[in-house]
Write a structure and sequence with these properties.
Elements lengths: L1 E4 L2 H9 L5 H8 L6 H12 L3 E4 L14
Antiparallel strand pairs: 1-2
Helix pairs in contact: 2-3
């Protein structure tokens, strides 16, 4: 799963530039939405110094004690 990592200041700047609300920007940067607006948010975040990171999706894992 890919996501774009940016400082909080970049998210604030995106809001000030009119790209949307904090939840909209967060969803776009976490690649949970793929609308035209989300693609523009991601593009601008990369221009402002964001970094694409590949993350693993964690599954609900049972603690070792519960496996017995």
């Amino acid at each position: 799963m890919k996501r774009i990592i940016v400082d909080h200041g970049i998210k604030k700047k995106l809001m000030e530039e009119g790209y949307g609300s904090y939840p909209t920007i967060r969803e776009a940067l976490n690649c949970r939405s793929n609308t035209e607006a989300a693609r523009k948010i991601r593009q601008r975040a990369l221009q402002l110094g964001g970094v694409v990171m590949e993350t693993e999706r964690l599954r609900n894992l049972k603690p070792a004690m519960m496996e017995e």
